[in-house]
Amino acid sequence: MAYSEDHIALAAEYALGTLDADERALVETMLIVDPGFLALVHAWEHKLAPLHQMVSSVEPPAGVWNRIAAGMAQMEKETPPVPANDTGKDAVHAIDPVTLEMTSALEGRTPAAPAAMPELASEPAVADTISASAPPDLKSTEQSAFAGAPAVSPPAKGKSGSGFGVVMGAIAALLAAIAGLQIFHPSTLPAALRPKPEVRTVEVKIPPPPVAAQWVAALQSDARDPGFILTVDAASRRYTVRRVGPPPAAGKSYELWIVPGKYGEPRSIGVIDGEFTASGALAGVDAAAVNNSIYAVTVEAKGGSPSGKPTAQPLWAGKLYESVPAK
């Protein structure tokens, strides 16, 4: 099938990947129903394939990373610091005297008296509350335990909240950069990060081909019994001839001829081998000539007439008639 310049340009743009979504859907539909157009697209892909070797990888512009760094710095300035937990100032971790003695015994030394807690001295209300609420037999134990407990410093105020905001900002900026590259320069990304092509399934209903007319001729030597039955398909002009009578004698062959008009020159269209013989020898003959010619069979030497002309009188002849009309 001959394609116009628009079809050729459309196939080239599809191979390059420059069509929009609607145009690609149209081309993909044509690829399903038109094998010739599919071959045209494959030819363009083959021609354009060397261009991939000529293009080197492209690094993102330096401005992209500068903008990411500036955005991270700005987010760090704008993120308020998270206040440290002040409850550690009031927490008291007592050391179990039994555990301290066991540890010292295992190490072979005398347990040293732990330093007093300045925090408890500055807040007598806490100590008084503990002493007042504890049972009498436990007051002395608790007071000695608290008196010998080491001081616990409150946790230092850091920038954990601010650091988390910076990390999240960096991740968001990186995702935005990847999204931009997926849209404008997908070839610079690894294969795992490239956008997946959209696949559409289009159902195209192709009507069945029209039924061509069938023509038939009975080639006979008299009005009683035919020797051959000739059938011709009007669309393809392919014929099938069936031998009804006996096979040819040894060293002989039946040869089929087409005789155009009343005084036309006979033309061989093939040797009849076996009971059924099919051939496309009528493909180059005009349709009107196929329908209006006389068909004849002669007995020739094995393999057909060597001169291309009949060497004997035809023994069977007939004319085509339409047996099945076209639909």
Automatic annotation (TrEMBL):
Domain Anti-sigma K factor RskA C-terminal, which positions? 168-311
UniProt-annotated location(s): Cell membrane; Membrane
Q: How does it sit in the membrane?
A: Single-pass membrane protein
InterPro entries, alphabetized: Anti-sigma-K/W_factor, Anti_sigma_zinc_sf, RskA_C
Matches recorded under Pfam families: RskA_C
Give the Gene3D superfamilies listed for this entry.
Answer: Anti-sigma factor, zinc-finger domain (1.10.10.1320)
Instruction: Enumerate the residue ranges of region (Disordered).
Output: 134-158
Alphabetically list the UniProt keywords: Cell membrane, Membrane, Transmembrane, Transmembrane helix
Q: Where are the transmembrane segments?
A: 163-184
Family annotation (PANTHER family): ANTI-SIGMA-K FACTOR RSKA
Per its record, how is this protein called by name?
Answer: Regulator of SigK
